[in-house]
Amino acid sequence: RLYQIPFGMPNCEDESEARTLYLVGDFSAPAEFFVTLGVFSFLYSMAALVLYLRFHSLYAENTKLPFTDFCVTVCFAFFWLVAAAAWGKGLSDVKAATRPSALIAAMAVCQADGVLCNAGTTPAMGLANISVVR
């Protein structure tokens, strides 16, 4: 929900007053889908572990239970692939929306003649990139 994040932009004409710039975009849906699927996968894994360890005889005697477990696991694997792809796309969109050059281009004060705007440092996205790989 980048549209909720304000940036104070200096006004070169009047130093005491700053203008506010809001980012554009809402990329929360892919992240929420990714996290929700991760939570459900964890809960299913814990339930399956209880079933395997506590009710092993029920699991061994019932022929439909292993097949059902296999089908649910395949569905989780497919949705995990979809969620990882969605989160990867969402992250690339967040990177594009928060790129320093894009922010500078959106600031009207930086477009005036004789004004030189510099972003300083590039934001570190290493941990976000790792979250997509995992």
From TrEMBL:
Protein name: SYPL2 protein
Species of origin: Cardinalis cardinalis (Northern cardinal)
Residues spanning the membrane: 33-55, 67-87
Family of the protein in this entry: Belongs to the synaptophysin/synaptobrevin family.
One CC-aspect GO term: synaptic vesicle membrane
Keywords in alphabetical order: Glycoprotein, Membrane, Transmembrane, Transmembrane helix
Membrane topology category: Multi-pass membrane protein
Cell compartments where the protein resides: Membrane
Residue ranges of every copy of the MARVEL domain listed in the record: 1-134
